[in-house]
Amino acid sequence: MTAFQRSFIPYGSQWSTPFAKWQGRLASLHPLRLAAESTRAQFERRGIDPQGLDSLVVGWTVPSLQSFYGAPWMAGLIGAPDITGPMVMQACATSVRALQTAAHAIEAGDREKTLVVTFDKCSNGPHVYYPDGAAPGGTGKAENWVMDNFGKDPWARNAMIQTAENVAQEAGISRERQDALTQLRYTQYEAALADDRAFQKRYMLPVEINPSGRKVIGTLDSDDGVFRTTPEGLGKLRPVMPEGTVTFGSQTHPADGNAGCLLTTEAHAKELATDAGVTVRVVSTGEARVKKGFMAMATVPAARQALARAGFGVNDVRIKTHNPFAVNDVYFADEMGIAEDSFNNYGSSLIFGHPQGPTGLRLIAELIEELVMGGGGRGLFVGCAAGDTGAALCLQVDCD
């Protein structure tokens, strides 16, 4: 696959809600309805007419009530009842895949204005029962969608955390390096909170908490559940696994939230942007799979593929990563030959949490803002995903 040429994100169309910790302040809200409310709020904020859309791509990984009707239902809720589109589910690679799906249609000339909206709620995940008529007594099997799948990959036969331990052991990544990386990312995240959260307010939408659908009982305008992190605090934590190196401090936490953007042609991007002098082009994507049980390694080949397709060098780009474990970023920095403090300015999912589907799009929104603040340039987002896979995306931002 070659680089994309015609796919642009109108500057200012990208958004993310705050992320709320597992069983936190968004746990009682329906994730698709909440994403629709966020989309409407963003459109009103930016003066975007939903009737002008010709398609949408919906990305999610945790089923919710009536999510079977995902894209058509979303279209109706946002005021664009005449459009539809695919629903994408690819674990933590969902955001990249959703953008890639929209970009392919634009490159082919099939679409010109597509909404990409991603959402998930790890809180109160569904409990699914699978009937089995061939079993004794017809007894089926039950699954806690979130917890059981975090706990076991049916192919590699290990938990997510085991993949981090496998990489730490093979690559010789110590507990001390993981703790130091975690502290660094927390310090970077604190920079996003400076000046009354000036950086986050560039892209983040507040959420009205309205579980009954009638009365608003509160507003969430910043991340809920970020733990204060200190070297002393990290040092006191025990490894999660016996004789392991990963603690609850050096891994992310499940979360709830949503994120989205528009993907259009260049002409429409200039028309819809909050600043017509800023252009944001989706240049390329990449994906990879590594050996069983070594998920954290997958970011490296995925990033290299996206960079090669874009014609970018790793030292030419600003980088954001989805890093569910500190191991990810230590390994990525070592393999790519870059400094650990050279990427993930303003923090990462290691610190602010991980709702899966929208995690990548939030980080891409942050990447866009960071590039605009720097006067433009090239960017790379990359993250690992379930099944020992990884996904990456390259951007080009130009500022007149």
List the main descriptive attributes of the protein structure presented here.
400 residues; alpha+beta; Peroxisomal Thiolase, Chain A, domain 1; 6-stranded mixed beta sheet; 4-stranded mixed beta sheet; 13 helices; 34% helix
Q: Name the CATH homologous superfamily of one domain.
A: Thiolase/Chalcone synthase
Structural class: alpha+beta
Query: Mind telling me which CATH architecture of one domain this is?
Result: 3-Layer(aba) Sandwich
Strand content: 15-25%
The 3D shape can be described as globular
What name does CATH use for the topology of one domain?
Peroxisomal Thiolase, Chain A, domain 1
Q: Which consecutive residue ranges, at least 5 long each, have pLDDT under 50?
A: none
Sheet of most strands = 6 strands, mixed
CATH class of one domain: Alpha Beta
- Helix percent band: 25-40%
Number of helices: 13
Order of helices and strands: EEHEHEHEEEHHHHEEHEHEHEHHHEE
Overview of the molecule:
A hairpin with an 8-residue loop joins strand 8 and strand 9. The chain has a domain of 156 residues: Thiolase/Chalcone synthase (Peroxisomal Thiolase, Chain A, domain 1). It is globular, with a radius of gyration of 20 Å. The chain has 13 helices and 14 strands. It is α+β, with helices and mostly antiparallel strands and 400 residues long. The strands form four sheets. Strands 1, 2, 3, 4, 5 and 10 form a six-stranded mixed sheet that branches. A four-stranded mixed sheet has the order 11-14-13-12. The chain has a two-stranded antiparallel ribbon with strand order 6-7.
